[in-house]
Design a protein that fits this description.
434 residues; alpha/beta; Transferase, Pyrimidine Nucleoside Phosphorylase, Chain A, domain 3; Pyrimidine Nucleoside Phosphorylase, Chain A, domain 2; Aldehyde Oxidoreductase, domain 3; 3 domains; 4-stranded mixed β-sheet; 4-stranded antiparallel β-sheet; 17 helices
Length: 434
């Protein structure tokens, strides 16, 4: 079998067999197939696509290219949640303790942020002492003991995907549905969960700008998961404006905690309730959405969900006092209002621009080696549809450096589009797929 022949086959519109795909991925991972040949293959796939069987084989080849977690030592159905990412997406911080408090086992691997989208692992490190690096044995033991653990991805989890994504990123072949779906699902399958709930974002702050594309991606990932024997559900959710009000690591942690107390923003609370209901249903803890919502509400109202977050933080070496006393979380030295220059209504918030503003302040990474300032970020006081008067705050900028604050302020102001039209805020949930 030669890579040259496989490139020609796919270039000419042919279908690769499972054996050919495994040969290609194994060879590339081991360094036997050079970047220039794999680049040619990625471009051939980009233009000619992959069918369902090819996509499934590519996913499994990447999942099996490195470590695969065996979670059979954890009793019960293990449920994972994956978000395609966005601005202010702190969902796992509130969602997983809620679901765990209802009896679902959460053994979750999460990533760090890169660019204007934040990472769950970075946010969790806002809790002083919190460790995201546990041995597989300690990880499994903790889930059995308290029902939840969230750790960083191991370096050898789906290494083929890491190599391929880096290559696609510099060869303009990222934007292909099969390649995106297989990249995401290879890591999810390698992480060992029995059931997976997907949160696929759509809108200006999402990778998939159009809802139709988000639906296609969700459908492709669900098909891969079901073919691999996993229970699957997907939610198409809105990312046309930041999720909730807070953007920035410790600020988002604080908002997640307020949500666990029952005082979270309406859009963020609704997303957590919807995703949580899906997780309870695929775990067979709840028979229907109404029952699931009642269980989640009771977990919040009783304080069990908040206590579960404190239990998670303490179990992984963090200071659980920060869960109950959020003033102990990292705080910026300066909080400055961004004042509206005119009367009107917020017609649009350029979502990705808000994320970039947080990045400018130091709340995100421009490269993998960048250090993050956990304390900085933005808290919105106005969302789409809000009325605003001249001189009234649109947001508050939390910063530690004046030059960065000024750069952020100039750009953030342009992200708010204020006009005379009253625009109704869009629904946070677009579709639920089963």
């Amino acid at each position: 079998m030669r890579m040259y022949d496989l490139i020609m086959k796919k270039r000419n519109g042919g279908t690769l067999s499972r054996d050919e795909i495994f040969f290609m991925i194994e060879g590339y991972t081991k360094g036997n197939i050079p970047d220039y040949q794999m680049s040619a293959m990625m471009m051939a796939i980009y233009f000619n696509g992959m069918n369902e069987k090819e996509t499934a084989a590519l996913t499994m080849a990447m999942a099996e290219s490195g470590d695969q977690l065996d979670l059979s030592g954890i009793q019960g159905i293990k449920v994972d949640k994956h978000s395609t990412g966005g601005v202010g997406d702190k969902t796992s911080l509130a969602l997983t303790p809620m679901v765990s408090a209802c009896g679902v086992k959460i053994a979750k691997m999460s990533g760090r942020g890169l660019g204007h989208t934040g990472g769950t692992i970075d946010k969790l490190e806002s809790f002083q002492g919190f460790s995201t690096s546990l041995s597989e044995e300690a990880f499994i033991d903790q889930v059995n003991r308290i029902g939840i653990s969230i750790i960083g991805q191991t370096k050898n989890l789906a290494p083929a995907d890491k190599k391929l994504y880096a290559l696609r990123d510099v060869t303009a072949t990222v934007d292909n549905m099969s390649l995106i779906a297989s990249s995401i699902m290879s890591k999810k399958l390698a992480a060992g969960a029995d059931a997976i709930v997907l949160d696929v974002k759509t809108g200006s702050g999402a990778f998939m700008k159009e809802e139709a594309d988000a639906m296609l991606l969700a459908g492709e990932m669900m098909t891969i998961g079901k073919n691999a024997g996993r229970k699957m559900m997907a939610v198409i959710s809105d990312m046309d404006q930041p999720l909730g009000n807070a953007v920035g690591n410790a600020l988002e942690v604080k908002e997640a905690i307020e949500t666990l107390k029952g005082h979270g923003p309406a859009d963020f609370t609704e997303l957590c309730m919807t995703l949580g209901s899906c997780m309870l249903m695929v775990a067979e803890i709840a028979e229907n959405e109404q029952q699931a919502r009642e269980m989640l509400k009771e977990a919040v109202d009783s304080g069990k969900a908040l206590d579960k977050l404190a239990e998670l933080v303490e179990a992984q070496g963090g200071d659980k006092r920060m869960v109950y006393e959020t003033d102990l979380l990292p705080k910026a030295s300066s909080i400055t209002p961004l004042l509206s220059e005119k009367d009107g209504y917020v017609e649009k918030i350029q979502c990705d621009e808000v994320g970039i503003c947080s990045l400018i302040l130091g709340g995100g990474r421009e490269t993998k080696e960048s250090a993050i300032d956990l304390s900085v970020g933005i808290v919105l006081t106005k969302k789409v549809g809000s009325h605003v008067k001249a001189g009234e705050p649109l947001a508050y900028i939390h910063s530690n450096e004046e030059a960065k604050r000024l750069a952020c302020e100039e750009r953030l102001r342009k992200a708010f589009h204020i006009g005379d039209k009253v625009k109704k805020e869009g629904a946070i949930i677009h579709q639920i797929l089963k």
